[in-house]
Design a protein that fits this description.
Largest sheet: none
Number of domains: 1
Number of strands: 0
Shape: globular
Structural class: mainly alpha
Length: about 250
């Protein structure tokens, strides 16, 4: 992947791309919008007290999607698969923004727990893992995942101060946060038994596992190739260390 260079999308197709995107959005909104408005109005009229519970679930899934998107985007960045269609700084900014959006949505999800009267949560129960009145272990895993994502997201903004190596090390927490969010959603979510929810969790996990495996394979292949080149140079020199050129010796 080292030879991948930014090419961008063909500017001649820009109008077509935006047009197709607008048509797709229009079709989705036209097909689902009226029904969603009617359903929301019905719920508001018949059982307005359940709105915090409904929005709590909505923000939970939105946070999970944003977090998954950030993890997937990060893996695509690390494998340089995105470099052919967009500049790396743009891709990195989108990766960072998705992480921040996921953290914000998860925070709103937590705040709504305090407003939901179905299962009342105190402030301590919202913040401290293991104190939840509902599925304390699974909810606690989600709380820990939230704190891990907060650390990872904060690391974006102090990257220059902590250095690239520390920043990369902290980034490994992303996988634990994603795993925790997935376990939290499956084990404590009221919609986990629904087919669409299972599909969301399984599909997200499958994509992350595939890209992570691909990233590991690419990294190992690169290391083996470099070590093979090093052995070839040693064999070509008869096992002796090659003396540097005069200019190299001076630079050293």
């Amino acid at each position: 992947m080292a030879g991948v260079r930014y090419r961008g999308l063909d500017p001649r197709t820009e109008l077509t791309r935006w047009g197709l995107a607008a048509v797709a959005v229009g079709i989705v909104m036209g097909a689902t919008g009226p029904g969603a408005v009617r359903g929301f109005t019905t719920v508001l009229e018949t059982n307005g007290a359940s709105l915090p519970w409904l929005f709590e679930r909505l923000f939970a899934f939105l946070a999970y999607l944003a977090t998954t998107g950030s993890v997937v985007y990060g893996l695509l960045l690390s494998t340089k698969l995105l470099d052919a269609i967009a500049h790396r700084p743009i891709n990195f900014a989108l990766h960072q923004d998705l992480a921040a959006i996921g953290l914000g949505l998860a925070g709103i999800h937590g705040v709504l727990l305090g407003l939901d009267r179905t299962i009342p949560f105190s402030l301590a129960q919202i913040l401290v893992p293991g104190l939840s009145p509902h599925a304390p272990l699974a909810v606690g895993v989600g709380q820990v995942a939230l704190y891990l994502m907060a650390i990872v997201t904060a690391s974006f903004y102090v990257r220059r101060h902590i250095g690239q190596r520390a920043w990369r090390t902290l980034h490994y927490l992303t996988f634990l946060a994603f795993l925790g969010a997935t376990v939290h959603g499956i084990a404590s979510g009221t919609d986990s038994a629904a087919g669409w929810a299972r599909g969301l969790y399984l599909g997200s996990t499958a994509i992350v596992v595939f890209l992570l495996t691909y990233r590991i394979v690419v990294s190992l292949a690169g290391r083996l190739a470099r070590s093979g080149d090093g052995r070839s140079l040693d064999a070509g020199s008869g096992g002796r260390r090659l003396s540097p050129m005069p200019s190299e010796a001076k630079a050293a």
